[in-house]
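seq as requested:
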Amino acid sequence: MRRFRPTWVEVDLAAVRHNVRLLKPDRVELLAVVKADGYGHGDAPVARAALEAAASRIGVALVEEGLGLREHGIEAPILVLSEFPAGAEKEALAAGLTPTVYTPDGLERLAAASDDAVAVHLKLDTGMHRVGLWPPEEAPAFARRILEAGLRLEGLWTHFAASEADEAGTRDQLAKLLAARDAMTGDGIEPAMLHAANSAATILYPDTHLDLVRPGAAIYGID
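struct tokens:
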């Protein structure tokens, strides 16, 4: 409580729009990450500004964040960057949130909650070791399970661990993602969208842009 020390933050949404336009590569979609209340800048205003600029999708970390954006009138596709927690599936799907999957349990719960061929994104752990299917060589078999569960594989993705500082590691992660994609294609499974680039990779490595980039920090002016 700050009764005698009033504070405020002024967010320049024109700067957000400028940054999004600057970051978006030609012929590649941009997903604006607005997790953690837009990194403290206000998720709904930032999402709206990003969509007014060059973003076509929004990314969040939690189902609650996606539901909140829907309540604020954000209608663009919203990708939840981690699996829906148990019990959240029906509400999340009813709100049109796009799920990420990477565990058998998460896939099973999602399939049980879905009445139609929901589009999902399969996340691979290629070296960051936060969340994702590990090892990435299991991608073809897991993708087959997605299809057998009656779901639709819209995206295949990973997250770079340190693309701002580790070029060799970043390129190794990219190679693992592409190898998984090639193995899936050899199995007759081809995701519609491949994505990996966070802020630093979007700026530094054009070959990581693929079908979609996912800047977060750079949208807010962080170099």
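The radius of gyration is 18 Å.
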